Amino acid sequence: MEPDTATEPGGGSERLGRLLGGEHTGWLVSRARRRLEQGRPLTGIVTLGNASQEQRRAAELLLGRRAGAGTSLSVSLDDVDALLRTSGAAPGGLAEAVRLLTGPVQDLAAAAAAEASAWSAARAPLDALVAARPSLAAWLSWLDGTGTLRRLAGTPQAAGPLVRGLRAVLDELPSPGVALGRLAAACAGDAHALDDGRPLTTLVLPAVRVLGGSSPTGDGSAAGRRAAWAAVGVHRDDLSSTVLCLGVPGGSVTSTGRILAAASQAGEPCVLTLRQLSHGQHQAELGAGARTVFLCENPIVLASAADELGAAAPPLVCVSGQPSTAVLSLLDALAGDGARFVYHGDFDWGGLRIAGGLLDRIAWRPWRFDSTAYLAALAVGGGELTGRPVDAPWDPELRRALERHAVRIDEELVLPDLLADLAAAGSAG
To answer: Most buried pick, 111, 280, 306, 400, via CB within 10 A?
Structure first.
């Protein structure tokens, strides 16, 4: 009895090796394997361009007929399949022959579909998050467009824990005030999971920026990262988050009250840390009561008020761009004492964005910060207005005025008017 299916060390029978195992039929086996990997049927014609004489001769010996004229070589996969079955070289046909000669074949199309399904399942919590919070849609578009999740995770299995941590962090934001390490520990089980450069931070921080009203990318600076976290109520620690104020009366009972009182009596600006604002019964020691508290965007306003008004300056708080957690903590405490707020900032898109974010946190009235004030300030000049337009909820006409004139006016350019207002308020008590 002839051993048709005796297996050789390389896999496959002797007869199969003679028919398809040679060097000059390797291209045909390779084409068939590729089709199997792609989930395509082994039917139809395959063609080899610029076939050698040896390859043409091998095809003729395989099929028992002339290979035709020309430089290309065409072979019917159906004929090869039938030959292998009837000869007994591979009773399962060409598909079996490919596996015997080259090893197991993976269905790449099926594998790709399975991987896509796994990635979709891993990412599903983010779709649910954005469905509940449409404000994060720009962040998710950025995440998908950059492929950041796939790059960081590598596999859908590794993406799962990252996505769960990501969702847990974002579910806690914005926060009334929490330390970064505490947020990381609570949401990811690791107090350092949100440190700079960690995978979770790379995913979360762009979303944090979007929640704060800016683009997902940011400027890449440490100050920018601190400001982004601060905008959603997260501080790195209670010493690095500070607030600059002037004329807040303070008191004599707590250390914070005494610090404020000494600075106010001397007419000097005071820098308070978040720690000083979050330890002890500080609210009763602010001393502002139901007075009007002036808010400005830039330190130059507060410094100029200290220079010109000194101890006669009314309560004035500088938000210093995007408000830090310390700024928000002080404003919350002042509001708790009954204070009323008026606000002035830069007449540009960044200034409107900061003001709008602050308005979401506390109620304030515009202090020379509406369309009428902007049109009047155009007389002092200004710079080119650039950036992405935003609305001004306190005065919808302000956005239209900025778009129409396209002039940026910084607070420094209207200092005389601001100082006059502060002087009048200070003298009125």
So the answer is: 306
* Domain finish residue from 58, 84, 106: 106
Torsion of CA 332, 335, 337, 339, to 10 degrees: 140
For residue 338, give the CATH number of its domain. 3.40.1360
In a domain, 19, yes or no: yes
Task: For residue 83, count other CB atoms closer than 10 A to its CB.
Answer: 20
Could you list the residue range(s) of the whole structural domain that residue 207 is in?
Answer: 119-235
One domain, residues 208 and 134 = yes
Give the pLDDT confidence of 151-197 residue by residue, as tens digits. Answer: 999 999 999 999 999 999 999 999 877 889 889 999 999 999 999 89
Handedness of CA 36, 41, 43, 49 (dihedral sign): negative
> What's the whole-model pTM score?
0.59
Classify residue 4: in a domain, yes or no: no
**209 in the Ramachandran plot: left (φ > 0), alpha (ψ -120 to 50) or beta?**
alpha
Residue at 387 is within a domain: yes
Nearest by Cα to 180 from 325, 354, 331, 328: 325
Quick one: average pLDDT of 344-364?
A: 94
Residues 253 and 128 in one domain: no
Measure the CA–CA gap between 4 and 13, rounded to whole angstroms. Answer: 6
Same domain as 279, residue 253: yes
40 shares a domain with 64 = yes
Q: Are residues 424 and 394 in the same domain?
A: yes
Q: Mutual orientation of helices 325-336 and 349-361 as an angle, nearest 10°?
A: 50
Structural domain tally of the chain? 3
Confidence (pLDDT) at 91:
93
17-33 burial: b if 16+ Cβ within 10 Å, else e = bebbbeebbebbbebbb
pLDDT of residue 284: 53
Examine the domain organization and report whether 34 and 140 are in the same domain: no
